[in-house]
Specification:
Helices cover 9% and strands 36% of the residues. It is built from 5 helices and 37 strands.
Length: 431
């Protein structure tokens, strides 16, 4: 009873936080010709790390520079500037208008090195080639509407887009693009994905902790292994209502759902997953003699939403003495919930923070001025010109720029507390 009351109070507090009365602009807006590195440095250097710091990246493609003050030894025994950008402070939001229009990558050496597995980038590897590394203690970060893409070519070693060593990170409607080890959950903590895309081939969701993947598109680029969990916080990896799709020409039986990174600790479940390309019948693979505590599925479906037969799924690992129950009953599957897995002992509810603000009402254009009905829930208003963000305001009116054309279409998107932009309002023409 006390726990239920505690969770209820947390939900009320989170909902109340969205009833914004004081509007606020983004702390840092990265212009189309600007530096994302400067924005992240500003977030790292700020004095009040308890207040949320919101970065908005204007539409475009950005490249984070390598850091020549921090050299790293490559596999070819040559030292290179580190390609990793470190986010060191928590309560930081990195926002774009859409992951299809806003992306950033890193700067890796354009050198090919041959290791025992073939051609590779000399900086391939976890914590060597990452685009973005969220440091330990930088908790409660939030990302929405961006693509993070490794600059290392496919099949040239481990090329990490995001390496997260923090806690309670929320990734909404983002794209992580790599080939091997695309996403690394580095700590035994909790992480939450909602929507968006993760692309890769080998071990492209890997690491520790509990990760809830809520309706994420898993884009598989060839034969490989999808999920490679290690040591959980408690429950491991939960894929809920996700889609597994092909990145190219690979089809059915070209990949497995995952393999165990550890002995007796890895856990991954796929719930109500649409597998537009189906894994091999065995479903799971071996890794270094390891075995899972549980690798299982419930209600896996093909592209036509028809049930996939799970009768051939792998039931033993390692020396075949380590058994696995690969199919969950409806009752067993029902035990998995965001409230349970993400809530743990403190009632953390990430969906309170991903909730989007509804579009403004009564948008009008008259005599070069946009007006609309004030929205209490909005942190700020993004001004869209022909569908793309061009400016921001905290007022419920906006004077159109002098170069406005009669053909221009204007609309508004509201930001939630974290800075993420909701759906656009109706469009109006310049008058």
């Amino acid at each position: 009873m006390k726990k239920n009351l505690f969770l209820g109070l947390l939900s009320i507090a989170a909902a109340s936080a969205f009833a914004q009365t004081d509007k606020q602009l983004y702390d840092f807006v990265v212009p189309r010709d600007g530096s994302l590195a400067d924005a992240i440095q500003a977030a790292n250097n700020r004095q009040n790390i308890n207040a949320r710091y919101r970065i908005f990246i204007m539409p475009g493609e950005y490249r984070l520079p390598a850091d020549s003050t921090n050299m790293v030894l490559g596999g070819d025994s040559v030292k290179y500037p580190t390609p990793i950008t470190y986010l060191r402070t928590g309560n930081t939001s990195i926002i774009g208008e859409d992951f299809n229009t806003t992306s950033f990558t890193n700067t890796t050496p354009q050198v090919e090195w041959h290791n025992p597995w073939g051609a590779a980038n000399p900086l391939e590897g976890i914590s060597k080639s990452d685009v973005l590394y969220i440091c330990k203690g930088a908790d409660n970060c939030y990302m929405q509407g961006i693509t993070i893409k490794s600059s290392i070519a496919d099949a040239h070693g481990r090329n990490i887009a995001l390496n997260d060593n923090s806690n309670k990170t929320i990734i909404k409607d983002c794209c992580l693009w790599g080939f091997q080890d695309t996403y690394v959950s580095h700590a035994q903590q909790r992480y939450y994905f909602e929507g968006g895309v993760i692309r890769g081939c080998v071990d492209y969701c890997c690491g520790k902790g509990d990760v809830w993947y809520n309706q994420v598109t898993l884009r598989t680029a060839g034969g490989g292994f999808l999920a490679v969990p290690s040591r959980p916080f408690k429950y491991g990896y939960v894929f809920d209502r996700c889609r597994i799709v092909s990145d190219g020409n690979n089809g059915d039986n070209s990949y497995t759902l995952g393999r165990p990174w550890g002995k007796g600790t890895p856990s991954a479940v796929f719930l109500n997953t649409t597998m537009e390309i189906k894994p091999s019948q065995i479903g799971w693979d071996e890794m270094s003699g390891g075995w899972p505590t549980q690798f299982a599925e419930f209600n896996s479906m093909d592209a036509d939403k028809k049930p996939i037969s799970l009768s051939g799924r792998k039931t033993t690992f390692g020396d075949k003495k380590n058994c696995n129950k690969p199919v969950l009953t409806e009752e067993e599957a029902a035990k998995y919930s965001i409230e349970l897995v993400m809530g743990a002992d403190d009632g953390w509810e990430p969906r309170d923070f991903t909730r989007q603000v509804e579009p403004v009402k009564k948008l009008k254009a008259k005599k070069g001025i946009l007006t609309w009905k004030h929205c209490d829930d909005a942190l700020l208003y993004a001004i869209l010109r022909n569908g793309s963000v061009v400016d921001f305001t905290t007022e419920n009116s906006y004077t159109l720029p002098a170069d406005t054309q009669k053909s221009d279409k204007w609309s508004i998107r509201c930001a939630n507390q974290m800075g993420g932009l909701g759906e656009a309002s109706n469009q109006v023409s310049s008058k």
